[in-house]
Write a structure and sequence with these properties.
Chain lengths: 366, 334
């Protein structure tokens, strides 16, 4: 994991600042090293997180978990679902940003060639990865049902395990009365999704004491936010492909308007998904081994509150300014060093060649 | 195995921390000296000289902290709560100065705010690191293997002195780095700053060398009892000689030697601290062996680390080689 961090951090310097110092092939290699390092980071981060969700390959002696089988620890049961789910989510998030920026350029009739390339790339990614993500998410859900049934029960707001689960579209899950208020639901559809059988049974929240249940409201609503956005993303991809096929993509202003405002969807979906999986595993830090309440360090509450406040403050400033600057860079558009023609006859910068290539690809349709 | 593994791990973590202090030291030092620059062009020059490296430099902190966590979980569980506030303030300061690199380059009207963020973040991070060091040296209250003190136990005059000392030390590394990597007014000013910082560092080292044996019996016993003193007397002598060399090389207007002399000075100071505290990870109660993770865990992680560390070091040296020589115009963020 640390190797990956080092790979990423070290070669980022070469990638960003090394234009004049290294030959093109080495610059490409640095970019690949940054990308590879990031993916390997994701591998290890998600392996560690998955182990906390489905702790395998260990034995507990005197309340401390000891590794027994490292292969089982790293490739634990939920890892092969969580990793592709997160990687696909990351690609979808990036694709949505590219889609939105490309659509804005086309709407403003600036950087037309770049905008069209961005739109095509993004729609291609969404159309393939959106439906794929639905499939991965479904499999991930089945895996969670097997290993963390209470997380699924909270997601579905499913109280009574002796009856087939409904697909609850909206409700306010009430922990006190152990019922759903204001419920709108499709009967038996929950069982159809989770057990692939309308009369299939899966555990309800009432099967464990309240102290073993996760907090219902965040899990329930975050899941609906994630899935709702997922469906919008699939729709954006499929409609985009349809328009592309009809060759009206670049004239459909309503679609471009929609796309231009969709940059944030991926971020919200990713955060929602993490809320589902992290609050859904409560009250456990390491599922079934260590309760969150028992993992608390001897730091006074006031210290924790202070640093939490500082975190909110610092990240508030950093993200506000970040979004402001990113917006300004987008408004400025591609220019400067990256878009400049090379000083010499040969393309010294890989990106200038890439831009030429992008022009060539998009020219036949002009 | 159970005897040697913790020692090897302590060596790995010690190396990571030493590399962190030296590498992030010079780029934090550049930030500490940032307010003394006169024009935006000079500030650009200073920032560009560290821009390709700082991110990789800070990764050593992750290895030091992560290594402590996996190899000595009990020490980690005591040190982090004891030094919770300085650790978190340091991390937030590092966040601020990290984004300052990016934001300053795209800011138009708010450039001056990010100058302050860069200088302030670097300085606060350096002070916190010194406070953490001081907090460790002076000892942590432990009962039954867990931290038993209050949230401000670290806040002593000694720890604050260490905060100041580390800041001046980083300023020395930053100044000699600028002497090596920049030209013109920036390098000229850095030469003067390096001399001032060198005197400051020597004064700090002298105070710590007198203070710690007087205040802590275990440190006095370590240095001044026979036979230790026969082996240890060259350490202060070498430190004095290195300081002399650093001063002379600055006087002679050498460009590369002052930086490396400063590094050696840092390493000698570091060695002195190791001699004072070994084998304690949490002075004065918990040793390497008491806080070590299960041998199976340590061995597994060590295998990976020992294979990968030389590779990492290899490509880091390679990247420094690519960016060797003086910083060129237009190599920073744009």
């Amino acid at each position: 994991m640390l190797t990956a961090f080092f790979l990423e951090a070290t070669f980022l310097g070469v990638m960003l600042f090394g234009w004049k110092r290294v030959p093109p092939w080495l610059h490409v290699f640095a970019a690949v090293a940054v990308a590879g390092g990031t993916a390997v980071s994701a591998f290890w981060i998600l392996s560690a997180n998955s182990w906390m969700q489905t702790p395998a390959g260990r034995e507990v002696r005197d309340g401390v978990a000891y590794p027994v089988d490292w292969f089982a620890v790293i490739f634990n049961p939920s890892f092969f679902y969580r990793l592709p789910h997160m990687l696909t989510a990351a690609y979808l998030t990036t694709s949505l940003v590219i889609l939105a920026v490309g659509a804005r350029y086309l709407l403003a009739a600036r950087h037309i060639d770049e905008g069209r390339t961005m739109l095509r790339m993004a729609i291609g990614m969404l159309a393939v990865l959106g439906p794929l993500q639905l499939l991965i998410g479904d499999q991930h859900g089945l895996n969670t049902l097997e290993h963390q049934p209470m997380k699924i029960a909270a997601v579905e707001a499913h109280w009574d395990g002796s009856k087939p689960g409904a697909l609850v579209l909206f409700a306010w899950p009430d922990a006190k009365t152990e019922t759903n208020l204001f419920e709108i639901a499709i009967p038996k559809a929950g069982s159809l999704i989770l057990k692939h059988d309308p009369n299939g049974l899966f555990p309800g929240l009432k099967s464990v004491p309240p102290s073993d249940r996760p907090p219902l409201v965040p899990v329930f609503f975050a899941f609906r936010s994630m899935v709702g956005i997922g469906i919008i993303i699939i729709g954006l991809g499929l409609v985009g492909v349809w328009l592309w096929w009809r060759q009206t993509l670049f004239d459909a202003r309503w679609y471009l308007q929609l796309a231009a405002h969709s940059w944030w969807l991926g971020f919200v979906a990713v955060i929602s998904g993490w809320i589902v999986t992290e609050s859904g595993r409560q009250p456990w830090v390491a599922y079934g081994i260590l309760r969150t309440a028992d993992a608390v360090s001897p730091v006074p509450g006031a210290s924790v509150a202070t640093t939490l406040g500082l975190f909110v403050l610092v990240y508030g400033v950093v993200f506000t300014m970040g979004i402001y600057y990113i917006n300004r860079l987008i408004a400025l558009g591609p220019q400067g060093r990256a878009a400049e023609p090379p000083h010499t006859g040969t393309p010294v910068r890989p990106l200038s060649a890439a831009i030429d290539a992008a022009r060539e690809i998009s020219s036949p349709q002009r | 195995m159970e005897t040697y593994l913790p020692v090897i791990w302590a060596g790995v973590i010690g190396t990571a921390v030493a590399l962190y202090v030296i590498l992030d030291g010079f780029d934090l030092g550049t930030g500490i000296l940032f307010p003394f620059a006169k024009t935006e062009r000079e500030r650009d020059q200073m920032m560009d000289s560290v821009a390709p490296f700082w991110d990789g430099n800070e990764t050593w902190l992750v290895l030091g902290g992560g290594g402590l966590w996996v190899a000595f979980p009990q020490a980690y569980a005591v040190i982090m709560p004891a030094l919770y506030l300085p650790v978190f303030v340091m991390l937030l300061a590092l966040v601020f100065r990290g984004v300052a690199f990016e934001f300053r380059s795209v800011a138009v009207t708010s450039k001056s705010y990010w100058n302050v963020a860069f200088a302030g973040g670097s300085t606060i991070a350096a002070i916190c690191q010194g406070v953490i060091l001081g907090g460790l040296i002076q000892g942590i209250k432990v009962e039954n293997g867990v931290f038993a003190g209050g949230p401000f136990d670290w806040a002593t005059p000694f720890a604050l002195l260490c905060g100041l000392g580390v800041t001046v030390g980083y300023a020395l590394l930053g100044a000699t780095w600028l002497v090596m990597k920049t030209e013109g007014t920036v390098a000229e000013r850095a030469r003067g700053q390096a001399k001032a910082a060198l005197l400051g560092v020597l004064a700090f080292m002298a105070v710590v060398s007198i203070w710690t044996p007087l205040a802590f019996d275990r440190i006095a016993a370590r240095w001044f009892s026979a036979p230790n003193i026969y082996f240890l007397w060259p350490v202060p002598l070498l430190t004095a000689l290195t300081a002399l060399m650093a001063w002379r090389s600055l006087e002679e207007r050498r460009e590369v030697l002052p930086f490396f002399a400063s590094i050696v000075l840092f390493l000698l100071g570091y060695l002195g601290l190791v001699i004072s505290t070994f084998p304690y990870l949490v002075p004065p109660t918990l040793t390497l062996w008491q806080t070590a993770a299960a041998p199976a865990s340590q061995l597994f992680m060590l295998t990976g680390t020992l294979i990968l560390l030389p590779i990492i070091l290899g490509y880091i040296v390679f990247v420094y080689w690519i960016f060797r020589g003086k910083v060129r115009e237009g190599e920073g963020y744009h």
